[in-house]
Structures are given as structure tokens and as C-alpha cells.
Amino acid sequence: MKRLVTFLLLLAIQCAVSVAQDRLRLQPIRTIPVAGENTNLRIGPVRCDADQNVYFQVPQTRPVIASGPVVKVSHDGKRTVRYSLSTVTDFVSTGTADFSVSDSDIYVLTQDKSGRPRIVKFDRDGTVDSVVKLDTVDVVPRQLGVFASGEYFVAGYLTIGTNSAVRSFAGLFGHGGQLLRAPSLAGDINGPKSNDNSHESQEQYATSLDMSLVAGEDQGNLYFARLSSGGPVFEVAPSGVITRMYRPVPPAKKAEMNAIKVAGGRMAVVYLEQDPKTTVMAKVLIDVYDLQTGEIIRKYEHQDPKIGVSLACYKPEQFTFITADEQGHTMLVEAGL
């Protein structure tokens, strides 16, 4: 009996060690200072283009409190470009709701003062190329993706009726802003109960819808994610049809989904695990899925303040984070094994 207990104990220890070693630890490999950016204040998702240039939003307080310009940082940190809605002369914007990068062109999702959603396209140098007015008046736009065809995938929520009930929305829009398709997001997060139209319930639901993002295009598709603990993540074809839904499994009970990055047929799902009892930086957990099989093929982690928690660029086995040093200077950090 003692031998059996000893064997089972050793087996349990071996399994625990195996599980612990299953997750690969990321280390900082190269730190790149960003010229002219001395702030660690960033809003919303951080994006990347095919040349590993990094894009993020900074806050603004005038003329209204809202998300401000999109900033592009070259991969070597030596050049920055700002894409500001204040340079648009066609209308007065309420601020940046979201932005998308496609072939190094920048598309910014916003609304005019009347609430009409608009998409502003900027050239690489920060000048305004065009403005598209979307063919809808009831949608509060929150997420934007751009297909290679130039058509737009926009998500957000609808306000319905006199009680301003909130319902999720997703739509494919053409080059001229016309609505081409409004796909059903079967399996999406649940809205308020049908008999609960309270302002508080609607506001909580709208907030949960805001916690979403559209990952960049990969193999022709976009990936629309709800940043709840288990997603879902929708694969959106260029036709606007939802072709697949993924439900990533959180790696720990207190792990919250923070971002997804898609490249090379893989999806890197980033989680933050924070211990509320300490002031230690959250542990970053990254599960990499094969998009064809839906299975996890790599697991990474780190808890190094020098790397930070904001994953900007991902290629298979390559990670670039954006963070700030103790003086507030923005830094790009390449991390690996």
C-alpha cells in the first residue's frame, strides 16, 4: 500500500512538473526606444502591419474627451506618424472609435455630431485620403476591420425604440458605405433579458460589447473577438459570412482575455492573470491555436515589467510588445525564448 501511495505521489509530482514546463517563458531580446513618444497612456488595441510597424491610440481632452490620434511607430522606433481626425474638414468628429490597418493605409472609425458612422482613410504620411459615410443611422460603431477588397466589417450596437434598448450589430459595408450584409452572430454573448430594459442593464451590455476587437486579416479572413474569458472569436469571410466560431479556453480561473493576434494560420490569444492582493504586474499568458484544427500548439508566459503586457505584433514564434520605462518613454520590446 505504501509503495502504491509513493508511486501515485511521484506520478502527481511528475505531472505537475510537466504541466509547469509545458508553458514556455518569454524573455526580452531587444529593446527599441521610440523617438518623440514620452507617454505610457494608450487607448484600446495595439495593431501592427506586415512590416512590423506598430499603431496605437493616445487620449485627447479637446474638443471633447475621447480617443485621440492614431500613432504609427516604425519597427526601428526612429519614425512616428500621427493620423488625426482634427485634420478632417468634411465634418466634425466625436473621436476615434476604432482603427484598422490594411496595406499600410489607416482607416479610422468615428461618428459625426449627428451620430452618423463614418470611416476616414489616411495615407501613410498622415494626410486624409477619403471619407465614407456608412448607410446606417442607428448603429453606435465600436469595431472596424478592412478586407483586402476594401470593404468594411463594422461591429457595435443598435439602440432600439424609445427605451433605447441595446442589441449587438455586425455588418459588411461596401466601398461607398452601403450595407451589404448583416451576419448573425450565433453563439455570441447574451444580451439583457427580454423583460429587463433598465438603463443599468442596457449600459452593462453595451459596455461588454465595447470590450471587443477585430484582429487583422489572415488568409483573406478577419477575426472578430469578444474579450470575455472564453470569447467567442468569429472568423469572418470577405463575403461577410461567419464561417467559424472559436471558444478559447482560459488557461487559469482568473485569466482575462486581453487581445488576439492572427498570423500565418495561427491565433495567439493573450490573457492577463492579476492577483488582486498584490501590486505585482499581471502574468501574461499566451495560448497559440492552429486555426485549422482549433487546437493549442504553443503556450507562453512572462511576468517581466521590462516586456509589459501589450502585445503589438505577432508572427509565429515572434513577439513584439509596446511598453514604457520608468520615465514614461515609450519602448518596443522584442521577446522570445
Description:
This protein has 337 residues and is mostly beta strands. The protein has a single domain (24-336), classed as Neuraminidase (6 Propeller). Helix content is 10%, strand content 48%. The strands form six sheets. A five-stranded mixed β-sheet has the order 1-22-21-20-19, with no helix packed on it. Strands 2-25-24-23 form a four-stranded antiparallel β-sheet, with no helix packed on it. The radius of gyration is 21 Å and the shape is globular. The model is unreliable at 1-21 (pLDDT under 50).
How would you summarize the topology of this molecule?
Blueprint: H1 2-22, E1 24-25, E2 27-33, E3 43-48, E4 54-60, E5 66-73, E6 80-83, E7 98-102, E8 105-111, E9 117-122, E10 128-133, E11 139-146, E12 152-160, E13 165-173, E14 179-181, H2 199-210, E15 212-218, E16 221-226, E17 233-236, E18 242-246, E19 255-263, E20 266-273, E21 283-290, E22 296-302, E23 310-315, E24 318-324, E25 330-336
Parallel strand pairs: 1-22
Antiparallel strand pairs: 2-25, 3-4, 4-5, 5-6, 7-8, 8-9, 9-10, 11-12, 12-13, 13-14, 15-16, 16-17, 17-18, 19-20, 20-21, 21-22, 23-24, 24-25
